[in-house]
Automatic annotation (TrEMBL):
Gene Ontology MF terms: transmembrane transporter activity
Transmembrane segments: 7-30, 50-71, 78-96, 102-123, 144-163, 183-206, 232-258, 298-316, 323-342, 348-369, 381-400, 406-427
Pfam families tied to this protein: MFS_1
Protein known as: FHS family L-fucose permease-like MFS transporter
This protein's record includes keyword Transmembrane helix: yes
Protein location: Cell inner membrane
One GO location term (cellular component): plasma membrane
Organism expressing this protein natively: Sphingomonas xinjiangensis
Keywords recorded for this protein, A-Z: Cell membrane, Membrane, Transmembrane, Transmembrane helix
Membrane topology: Multi-pass membrane protein
Methyltransferase recorded as keyword: no
């Protein structure tokens, strides 16, 4: 019986982990999309960052209602609702591409992210709870590794489809043919994503009984605002706000940053790095084009994938809070190097920040769940609401980049990482709230 239950838990964890891959892939498409719409619709940096704002603002609007939905419908039904909502968002993106309407692009991104928000509220605590509670950090980090694999593939596909011939440097003009091709690429990407989400919904429907048997009991719909009275839930929400804001701001600006003449715009150094150069695919023109830079963004997210794989091993041996402190300090130092030193080397340093972003989200999430005296549903809902940092911080970075350049704008993420170090040090000293393990895990 114990062996059968363990096998069911492993299969449930595998099914949930496929969802992490899906939303990682879709989320990372926002990075090349920001660069594409800047050229397609002739936008400023801040206007282009409205794409990231529309996507991540959904977390602020939807997370707490999503927590109530998960508590009422349970995880599996909530995940199916989320996948259907994501299909609706994809259909709106198809309409936006065919009508060449930026406002519809923003609405489509909001609806798509609303579905992903429900998915995250349901899946993050579910992945953490499916097994021995002592290894919750490891399980969530392992799931996030597959999330990072999705974020690695997203920019490669997005840059290939969205950025062919698109340029945004001062003095460049995008031709009607290039504009039409970029819009057609957006249409194709979201058409395929719509089909893949539908297939994933069918897969999860077929796997629902396995997950339902292995999942811990859901909470009630009462007390979902209790996280606002928990010091650690609020502290963790602030940390998630800062982390997601920093990560998204760097990712959405990365293609524009690397394409800048002060970084790689007039250099072929990146093509000398075997794997990176191959993925970027030189067009034979000296310097790094916007499309080539967009493909390089995959290595920012790929660093997070590698870092999460390494982090999973480290978290099995080392305490989570001190490890988080080390990673945040290194990330802050790298941002400051980019902002203050610049040049070709800054491009390689910026791409490497993802390696140290790797464990931050899952470790912040689980550290907060352990220390919050509110329910897991309430705390998870508040933490996912705080992902709105991905809407706010990129706008601030866009404002700084317009006035002081793309490299110097990384002082904003640097400040976020410094504050995250404070969170990690505080978490190291804070006691874990004892809970009834029968209510949060299945052995």
């Amino acid at each position: 019986m114990a062996h059968t239950r363990h096998a069911g838990t492993v299969l449930a964890f595998a099914a949930v982990t496929t969802l992490f891959f899906a939303w990682g892939f879709i989320t990372s498409l926002v990075d090349p999309l920001v660069a594409a719409v800047k050229g397609i619709f002739s936008l400023t940096d801040v206007q282009a960052q409205a794409s990231a704002f529309a996507f991540f603002f959904a977390y602020f609007v939807v997370s707490l209602p999503a927590a109530a939905l998960v508590a009422r419908l349970k995880s599996v039904n909530s995940i199916l609702v989320a996948l259907c909502t994501m299909i609706g968002g994809c259909l709106l993106m198809l309409a936006a591409a065919n009508l060449a309407n930026y406002w519809l692009v923003l609405f489509g991104l909001f609806v798509l992210a609303a579905g992903i928000t429900v998915l995250q509220v349901a899946a993050n605590p579910l992945a953490a709870a499916l097994g021995d509670p002592r290894h919750s950090h490891l399980r969530l980090t392992l799931s996030q590794t597959f999330n990072s694999f999705g974020t690695f593939l997203g920019p490669l596909l997005g840059a290939h489809l969205f950025l062919e011939g698109v340029e945004v440097k001062p003095g460049t003009v995008i031709s009607p043919a290039v504009r039409a091709e970029a819009l057609a690429g957006i249409d194709m990407a979201y058409l395929w994503i719509c089909g893949l989400i539908a297939a994933l919904a069918v897969f999860f429907w077929l796997s629902r009984r396995v997950v339902e048997r292995a999942a811990p009991p859901s909470g009630t719909t009462t007390g979902l605002l209790a996280a606002f009275t928990s010091k650690w839930a609020l502290f963790g929400a602030a940390a998630i706000f800062l982390y997601v804001g920093a990560e998204v701001a760097i990712g959405t600006q990365m293609a524009l940053f690397l394409n800048d003449n002060a970084i790689w715009g007039q250099s072929d150094a990146a093509f000398g790095i075997p794997l990176l150069g191959y993925a970027m695919g030189s067009d034979g023109v000296p310097g790094v084009s916007l499309q080539e830079a967009g493909k390089a963004v995959a290595f920012y997210w790929g660093g997070a994938m590698v870092g999460r794989a390494i982090g999973s091993a480290l978290l099995a041996r080392l305490p989570a809070a001190p490890l988080l402190a080390v990673f945040t300090v290194v990330a802050a130092a790298m941002c400051l190097y980019v902002a203050l030193v610049g040049g070709v080397s800054a491009g390689f340093v910026a791409l490497s920040i993802g390696l140290f972003n790797s464990i931050m989200f899952p470790v912040i999430f689980t550290l907060t769940l352990e220390r919050s005296d509110a329910s897991a549903e309430s705390t998870s809902g508040l933490l996912c609401t705080a992902i709105v940092g991905g809407a706010i911080v990129p706008l601030l970075v866009g404002l700084v980049s317009q006035s002081s350049g793309y490299a110097f704008a990384l002082v904003v993420p640097a400040a976020c990482y410094v504050l995250l170090t404070v969170f990690a040090l505080a978490a190291r000293r804070a006691p874990v709230v004892e809970r009834d393990t029968a209510a949060v895990s299945i052995h």
